[in-house]
Each structure stands twice: as C-alpha cells, then as structure tokens.
Predict the 3D structure of the following.
Amino acid sequence: MSLPSQLDQVFVLLQHWVAGLFPVWLQPFVATVLAVVGIVASFPAIFAVTTVLERKGLGRIQNRLGPNRVGPLGILQPVADGIKSLTKEDIVPFTADGLVHFLAPVVLVVAVFLGFAVLPIGRNMVLANMDAGLLFFFAIGASTELSVFMAGWSSRNKYSLLGAMRAVAQMISYEVPLLLSATVIVMMTGSLSTVKIVEAQGGFTGFLPHWYVFTPWGFAGFVLFVIAALAETNRSPFDLPEGESELVAGYFTEYSGFKFALFFLGEYLGMFSIAGFAITLFLGGWGAPFSFLGFVPSWGWFFLKLLGAIALFIWLRGTLPRLRQDQLMNFAWKFMLPMTLLNLVVAGAWRFMGEGPFGGVTRWLVCSAVLLAAYVLLGRVLMRHQKLGPRSYRYAE
Amino acid sequence: MLGEGILKGLGETAKNFAASFVSKDRLTTIQYPEERAPVIENTRDFPFLVYDGEDKMAGLRCVACQICEKECPPKCIYIVKSTDKKPDYVGKPQIYPARFDIDISVCMSCQICVEVCPFEAIKMDTEFELSTTDRFGGLLYDRDQLARSNQHYHKIHPTEAAEVDARLAEEKAKSEAKAKAAAEAAALKAAAAAAAPKPTPAPAPAPVSVKEPTA
Amino acid sequence: MIPTLFGLTLPFLILAALTIAGAVAAALLRNLVHCALSLTITFAGLALLYLNLDAQFVGFVQMLVYIGAVAILVVFAILLTRGAGMPEYRSFSSNWLLGLVLAAATFALLAWAVTLSLPASAASAAPAVTVQGIGVALMTTYVLPLEIVAILLTVALIGAVIVAMPEAKSAKSPSAGKAGAQ
C-alpha cells in the first residue's frame, strides 16, 4: 500500500489491528466499539474547539477580541467552561417533573450521537453502512424534537414551555423542506445509502469534481438544505426558541450545571451532524475538491469541509438578526416549500433531459432559468406583501 | 431581489472580521486588569466619610446627626452616637459617630446621603474593585474603612471638593466673625453691666450656624 | 448463536417487554403528558421490533412518522386542549367493562388474523427487501393506492388550511387580516 492510501486508511487499519488482538468471535463487537469510541471522542472535541472559535469569530465580527484569558490566546477556554459546568450546582425546580427533566438532555444527546452512525467520515469510515442511511438520519433527527418538548414541559416554567413549543413548531415546519431538498439527491443517486451518495459524486471532469452542488438543482438544493438545517438546529437567524430577549433561554431555561452543558453539546453536535450531511449530500462527502489533491486523506477533506461549514454557520450568526415567528413560518411554507417542490421537478427534468437530445448545455440553461425565475418571482411576490418600516402596534402606543 | 441584503450584510461582517486583525483602533475593548479607562470626574459609586487633617478619627467631619441614616432608602447606614464630644472643624465641641457602618452590598448608590448631609461629611467614592470572598462581613464597612482624607476627595472630584472647601472656609470665617462679634458684644455688655448696677439676664448665646443642606 | 427463550430471541423479548410496558403505562398513568411520552416508548419499541425483523425501511419510517410527528401531534393536542399537567383524570373510566370487552375482541380478531396468515413452516428465510425495491413497487404495482393516499392527504391539508384561515368577515377587511398575520 502506498503512503497516501495508508494515511487515508490509518484509522481503519488501526481499528483492524486493535480488533485483531481479540478472539475472532469478539472481533466485530470490538471493531464497533472502537468506531463508536472514535465518534464519541472526536465530535465533542470538535465541539470544544468550535465554542472557542465561535466566540472569537463573533468577537472579531463585532470588532472585539473574544475570549483571550485562559491559556495562550484563550484556546483553553473550553477547559475552563467544562470545569465550570461540571462543578456548578445542578438545580431542579421544585415543581418540575424530575424524571422527564432528567431524561430530556440524555435523550437529546443520545439521539444526536446516533445520527453520526451513518455519516461517512472518510473512505471506508462509516459506522453503519445502511441501505436506508439517509432515512435513519432523518428518523433520528425527528426524535430530538421530543426531547426538546420534554425539557420545556417538565421544567414547569412558562418560558421553557413557550420556547419548547416554538422549537417544536419550527423543527416540524423546517423538516419538510429539509427532507424534500435531500430527496433530490436520492432521486439522482437512486439510493438512500450515504456511502453510495458519496461514491456517486466521486468522479472528475478535467480536474473539477462531480459534486451535486455544481448543478442547478444541486445548488438550489444545497442552499435550501442549509437554510432548513439552520432552522432545524435552532441556529441564528432561526434561534427564536432561545431568544434571550424574550424567553430567557427557551426550553433549557431551568437547566444548570452539566445538564445545561449536555443541551449545549447536543445543539452543537446536531449542527455538526447536519453539516456533515450537507457535505455528504451536496459537497462530495470526503472527496477531494480537485483531482490533483487526491493524495490528502479522505477524512482530512471531510473535516476541512466540516470546518468550512461551521465557519459559514458562525458567519451567518454574526450577520443576521433573529426572525420573528410569523416571518419564520411564512418563510418555511411560502418560500422554502414551493422552492423545494419545484427543485424536485427540475431534478426530474434534468435526469430525463440528460438521456434525450437536450443534454449538455441546454439542460443546464433550462434548469437554471426555471429555478432562477421561480426564485425571483417568489421573492418579488413575498416582498410585495412585506411592509418594511417601523412596526405599528394595535394596542400599545 | 430577495437575499441581496443578506449578501451585503455578510460582506460587512467579513470586512469587520478581517479588518479587526489589521487595524488596532477598530478594537474598542479595553483589556481591563492590565489597561484601565481613565476615571471621569463625575463617577460615583459608594459613599465614604471625609476627614480633615492627618488623624482619621479626630478629623472626621461627621457629627452623627443621623439624617443620612434616616434618609437612606435601603437602610444600609447604621450610626451610634458617641457619649462624649470632640471639637469639629470650627472648633466647637460636637458629638461624633461611635459607630458608622455602611453595608455596601445593600447600598444602591443613590447618593441621597450625600445630598442631605449638612456637614459635607459623606461623599461618593470612585473605588469599584470591592469584591471580597466574605459574603456577609466583607462588604459591611465600619467608619475606619469608610474614612477617606479630604486629599482623596480632592483627587477624585477636584471641582466639587474645591467648592466644598470654599464653602466650609467661608462658614468657618463667618462663624469665627460671629463668635468674635458675640464675644465683643458679650464684653461690651459685661462692661455695661458692670457700669449699670441693675442686673440683666445674659443674652442667649449666638445660635450655631447650621448650614442648609446643599441640594 | 443468539440465546432463545420459548422459541423467542432475547432481543425480541426485551423489545416486546419495552413495548408492552410503554403501552400499559400509557393506559394507566394519571398525567396525560406522561401517557403521551409512554406511548412514544411504545412507538420506539415497535420501530426497534421492525428493525429486529430486518425491516429497515418500515422501522425508520415508524420512527420518523410516529416519534417525529404523531407523538408531537398528540402532545400538542394535549397542551392545546386541556390544561396539561393536572393529574385529575381517573385512570379507569366508568364503563371500563365495555372497554375491556372491546379490547379483548380486537385482540382476538388480530390474533386470529395473524394465526391464519402464518405460513405452514415457521422458519422461512426473511425476504431481502431493499429500499429501492419498495420504491419500485410503490411506483409500479401500487401506484394507484399511493396516488389515492396522496390525494387524501392533500385534501386533508387543504381542509386544515381552510379551517385555520381567518373568518370571511375579517378576511374582507385587509387591515384586520394583516394585523393578525404580522
């Protein structure tokens, strides 16, 4: 095996070597445990790095320095945060529903971790290569809503409950465009398996890769998927469920200490997994962006892309103000849903025009024109009814 | 077009992000323990007791009139009057506070005690690094901790302190003049009384001039 | 080899116990939200049973639809209708006998149907059904039922929108409608 491919498979080889130390009947079990440990160790580590990157990045966007006290340049800040959250008092409200209050963060983190099982991190690096991997991810993602509701309801706090209701309504609304924008990929690949989706994007034309994002429907799908993913993970500008000016901290208002840290962890891990899926579906997964960069390990590309996605999320958070509830819902049902449905049709047209005489440049032009026209028209229609300006009140004044 | 504003905003934040690494004057944050913003003259946070001269307890201007204690909205001042007297800045014997405690953790920095004090004895400090590890006793300041020299007052609020000093000097001069006049009048009367055989009751002593509260 | 008990595998027994426990809790708990959450355990148990039977697609759809949507719907319905968290409901309704008879009858019917449909030889190899196969079947053999279901759902959706629309009176005056929307 050549050195680059050895480096590419270093974790797989390591797993095989360690598993080889055990008796044969135990080997599949050991290999699985090793992979799970890898996931459970690496993504929280990325979470720790992300918190400090996010705070520093947001600081720079607002012309501040960000955290710079713990360790050189503040890079040990997550350690301090971790110690703090571990040593803080765990307060459970007197009237809270103790069991449900305890279970909510656990359910959230477990569900979010399960989502990583089908995420291909590198070549041959996926925990469970399922036939219906994508469906598994969405099924798991749907169950996080329940934990959010459990947290909000069991706290016996009106802000918690309001935040939970907002979060659940928002997640349900944006799950539709999230699923529909991912469906395009399934239509094109003909498979729900995440590994097959990445392999389908593996080829190169010249030195450019065959990523789905470089097609009209893929680009539209990517943008829609990212918007829906932002909403699904309650990130700014869709962070109404925890709008601190209105709801203290939303559904985890009544959580403190390590349970709060678990919610924080769950939120960020959800962001990583959904960003990982955006990469898998649209950005070629662990594939290299240029044909001549194939010597870099596949997992390296995945984590680089993940870092880029995280940076984009931070950048968006530093830029956009929070939406209002009606704007949020209008956007989901009046813009996202029609666009994703249209994207399905366009993807179908692309598929069949490729077989017919209209392949090549024609289908590029037609599909782009249809999507762009729909985008402009829909935008115009939506903006026409939007009265921008100072807000008018009915009762106050 | 829809989304134009978002792109514009993203450009703006990207510019901020990049430029904050290049130009130092974009960063407005002061790295507090190492750097400090200059304290502006009108800063006020918690009250202190002014004393004149070198000795803290002897020079204390407070006469334990307890007006501030009564006016304090959160009732964070506690005063015990002394049984003996000591001379004030004019030289007149006055009661002084045997105890003067302010619970800084209760004080809300309203400055009412300063406004009602007729003796210019309590003023607002600018000291803000008051954190302590003792939750109850650590923020309960007694008169020894509260006493600050007039020089300190001049240092933190020069304009105001100069006004106060001028007023006090004027009052002192006035009361000295009055005392002198009273003494002269008393001497004159004594002489007259000595001249006239009929004894008359001595005139009431000149009232101690109590300055109106500076509103 | 997976150990068996009464001819049933251990994972199946655990999952069955979980499912039944969830169902019993959903029926007996006093707090409505607790009932709904217990019902979710039942849904999850069912999904895991499907997965245990190598029916990936059905298992995941069960998770997506029942845990992700139906459970949330139940919970929303509870919160929007009656005051949740007031454990004032009696666990047994007054006509529990009738309910018991109904439940027993339903169980008997289902059991009868299941025993009838069992193949003569119990140990048959599980058919390998891929997601692609299900998709092809839905789009060819079962395209008519699929379309009928789709129309039904669309009708339900439009109906829901009409129910949720503002009343005709306020719809006429644009200011009231707009104020409500914004």
In short: Residues 56-81 of chain C form the longest helix (26 residues). Chain C has two domains: 1-90, 129-182. Residues 129-182 of chain C form one domain.
